[in-house]
## 1
Amino acid sequence: MLIRDSSERPRGTLLKRFPVPRSQGLSPGSRVRAGREWPAPANARRLRTLQVYRYDPEGDEGPRLDTYRVDAEACGPMLLDALIHIKNTVDPTLTFRRSCREGVCGSCAMNIDGTNWLACTRALTETDEPVQVYPLNNLPIIKDLVGDQRHAFAQYELIRPWLRADTPAPDAHERLQSPEERARLDGAYECILCFCCTSGCPSHWWNGDRFLGPAVLLQAYRWLADSRDEATGERLDELEDPFRLYRCHTILNCTRTCPKGLNPGWAIAEIKRMLLERNL
Ligand code: SF4
Ligand code: SF4
Ligand code: FES
């Protein structure tokens, strides 16, 4: 089940603070303490409360959860609008990434009410009260809601995500595909590399140094499925590894949390099928 709305979170099985409650098993210095309470604006018509993770690794203090109150009538309808409103009018030190504001750049991925999603495509009306906002799980924090994605992008680079073909491109036109060949890319080319899936994948938490994770494996499948690419065997050789691919245990957290509605778990299973078929 894809979790599009905070109310759709399966409360019996998924913790509010995913993957672990914010103070469980952590050293005292890492525990998230209650932070600053910002006052509600005067004459607010529709008050919403946001509890937002704050942490500056260069400072002397551990992480904290600040509480902001915003008038939802004074900002746009999305959670990202509320965060921008806070940054512009309440607290300019709040740090988060954003660019397109319409779900195509992947910058504003964060953990909202316990599941990963894009802040620009999660309406305030689809969040809990108070809404809890944390950075994506399992990334070193640069500041507040900004996680360090260098490792994720290094893994992406590892699969060499570009067309590999020895046949020269035609002079008169692009490398052509039939409609059927083009359709095989559906469900893969739409990935915006937000890494909601990879940061929600338990196998990547435990073996992220060697397991490529769902986002990168979906991209690997995108090139395996491309009729114009001529390096299928080479790409499969590179993936046939107990850790890079086979650490996926089909838990499907990735598929439940993809804000583009993609199915990395299926793509990973397709890669395993291709490897099995060529080894028969
Ligand atoms: S299906 Fe595989 S890649 Fe997706 S969350 Fe589960 S283990 Fe991770
Ligand atoms: S598969 Fe979905 S969740 Fe994963 S990086 Fe791509 S768009 Fe984001
Ligand atoms: S700001 Fe680009 S996806 Fe949200």
## 2
Amino acid sequence: MMFVFLVLIPHTMQTIATTCPNASRCVCDEEKHYAKCTNRLVIPVLPSYVTSLDFSRNFLMHLQRSTFTALEALKLENLSLANDNICRATSDSLNDLLYLRSLDLSRNPMILSVAVTAIMSIRSPFFSTLIINMNPWKFIGIGSTLNALCTAFNLTHVSLRYSYDTSLSFNEMSKCVVLQFFDVSKGHIQFLEPGFLKHIKELNLQNNGITLRRGGFFGRKSTCSFPQIEILRLENNRIRNLDNRLSCLDKLRILILDNNPLMQISTNTFINLPSLSHLSIANLGDGLNTVKSLAFGSTSLNSLNFSGNKFMFKSLLSNIYFDKYNIFKLVPNLTELDLSGNIVDTSDVLTTMLLPVKFLKKLWLKNCGMSSLPTDFFSKMPHLQEFVASYNNISAWDGNIVLETILP
Ligand SMILES: *[C@@H]1O[C@H](CO)[C@@H](O)[C@H](O)[C@H]1NC(C)=O
Ligand SMILES: *[C@@H]1O[C@H](CO)[C@@H](O)[C@H](O)[C@H]1NC(C)=O
Ligand SMILES: *[C@@H]1O[C@H](CO)[C@@H](O)[C@H](O)[C@H]1NC(C)=O
Ligand SMILES: *[C@@H]1O[C@H](CO)[C@@H](O)[C@H](O)[C@H]1NC(C)=O
Ligand SMILES: *[C@@H]1O[C@H](CO)[C@@H](O)[C@H](O)[C@H]1NC(C)=O
Ligand SMILES: *[C@@H]1O[C@H](CO)[C@@H](O)[C@H](O)[C@H]1NC(C)=O
């Protein structure tokens, strides 16, 4: 006779928690499907609604498959392992995160091959966003490294801020065909090699040492490097010359060029950017001495920030060139203009300069050394809604003169 004992162990799904393990230094947000834990040695079991886990600032050291056992029941899409003291990883470490879309490995003391090992272990078909800011690698060749990763994954968003590389070759990234957003700001890049990125929409190159050494950098009509780019950030670099540099970027809407050592802005510098709507070219330092006639010529431009350039908008200065009649002559759609932080002559220069800008809605003239406003100033700008002229030396104005034809 045999007795069969059927032992039913109540299956208390060990990997599903319904409440946030608060005692384990985590906070959770059910509405946002989000959890965050800090100062831990292991990843705890989390509520099943969690799809985004910020597990930065912990002590994981060694990534392996078992590191993520507690997450088995989750459909985790976003995972941050930033600042987790990771220095090693096994080649199956991220195998089980089958829904992963975005991974942040910033600020870990791991060498490049460890990072690549971890990333290559991802099996999720949705993986598309990679963030590794503040990595400790020197001279790795960002382009070729990314190219290898782009061969394995359809990366759409990549962020590698604060990198040590001094050069970046877009040409080496030919496999990154679906890349839309690329941030390599705040690094040491001096040399850029152009290359074709078919779907790139936003390129953040600010705060490097970039010079754009030659004309035609972004390509020509039929061979344009970034045909879909909409946002290009180049502020805080070493660009001295924009001549023939900005062309063929037909979709570019926003261009930021602040804080570059430009001395001259030539005629029609931006004319070949037919979608440009916002241009910021502020805080150029002391060197700017020439703004050629029609420098800002653009039918699409809505908003121009030319603040903080200490440029002398005054007639008849021998070392400064600008043309009050034509500086804003062919910028018909300009509605917002910031000229703060320049020196403005209020006799006739300001009025003459602004005369062609018929649709101006917002004008900033802060800190422009003005002691009065020109006679009949506002009547020339019938659409003006906002006018800021603080930090000047206008002790009083004669409303009857300045506002002459507006008031009844
Ligand atoms: C989590 O625990 C801490 C103390 O350990 C407490 O101050 C906090 O109120 C708790 N939060 C929740 C949501 O229970
Ligand atoms: C996941 O992260 C991306 C950015 O990496 C963000 O846009 C998205 O909203 C996040 N998703 C969730 C569910 O938090
Ligand atoms: C990338 O996208 C292409 C086209 O949609 C698809 O065929 C391919 O399987 C994807 N690759 C990966 C690794 O998901
Ligand atoms: C600019 O304004 C003109 C009229 O002055 C208009 O025909 C044109 O569509 C505008 N262009 C853009 C890009 O908004
Ligand atoms: C123009 O740019 C400067 C410098 O970046 C900024 O401080 C200022 O707010 C900008 N002006 C407007 C109107 O946004
Ligand atoms: C401001 O204006 C007053 C009176 O018009 C003048 O005495 C003073 O020197 C001016 N200050 C500056 C900084 O221009």
## 3
Amino acid sequence: MQNNAIQSVSGREQKTHIRELGINLDRWYAIARSTEVQTQPLAAKIWNRAIVLFRDSAGKINALEDRCPHRQVKLSHGQVKGDLIECAYHGWRLNARGECAEVDYLAENQKLPNCKIRSYPAKEQNGFIWLFSGDETQAEKIDLLDLPEWEHLNYIATVSVIDCQAHYSFLIENLMDMYHGHLHDDWQAWANPVLDTLEENEHQVTARYQAQSYYKIDKIWSISQLFFKSLRRLHPEPLEVSYVYPHWVSTLGSDFKIYCLVCPVSETATRAYLIHFTSLNAFWRLHKLPVWFRRFIKDSLFGAAQKLLDGLVRQDVLMIEEEQQAFLQNSERKSYELNRALASVQKLIRSQAENG
Ligand code: FES
Ligand SMILES: [Fe+2]
């Protein structure tokens, strides 16, 4: 594990700035959506590592360094051939372990080159491809974040992709500081938050706010509140947000559950998947319907909150990227903070980067 949190500057130890901290690589990160990897290889990135993802003939996901051991070009430009990935340049084929398995122009007196690129543990679960890019021996000891609502027939999912040119800490702080509802006033997401309790341990920070929600999903037509503002009425609801390192989980009342799967790309770029679930639990009659019909409802309503979610993401990304730019221009400038949840978040980011 890299320890980049303490830098030695001319003999003096100096803390790395929060906006330059690394990540704990010994965690499972959602590096792509399942649907992004079909028959072609996909180039992806986590913390400055270029990765290629591809499916073998059984559909299983494999993850390798995205470089051909022959001349270092990107394997992701190549093609999948059975269980192997074939480089675009001279057609060398590599297996899932990253070993050279076939070269068509090998002469009779030549052996396959004994070269190997790094392979990474990868899993596919709940609509995402998860990668473990740290110490491989730890992979099976660490759980990946469960999203039970993904398959559950009572939840309707919407996914919005966040691509922002900023350090991941800006995104997490945005997600944990519910006072920024001010920014989303026109999208009517939540209102009047007041931080109530704060809990923290070495893996997570949970902030509970008293807030108000515009939505109540208790009638069959309530889903249309996602589309029509005039149907919304403010009412009190508890709002809970948790930084479950390295991801984020939130509930608003009992109707909404939101996840943010964070995949830091570099010190100044972050990709994340925001997954919004609307609960249909209030409709007990639904449970009596045949499973195929409930599945049909779930699938047809997939993406119902797309416009809302994408709108919120656009507003957040603009702010987060401005924060990053301001930091790059003047990293010495002091910021002022009123929300005590953010101190806990920064502490967790630092301890995971240092000791992870
Ligand atoms: S560079 Fe990949 S096969 Fe030659
Ligand atoms: Fe936001």
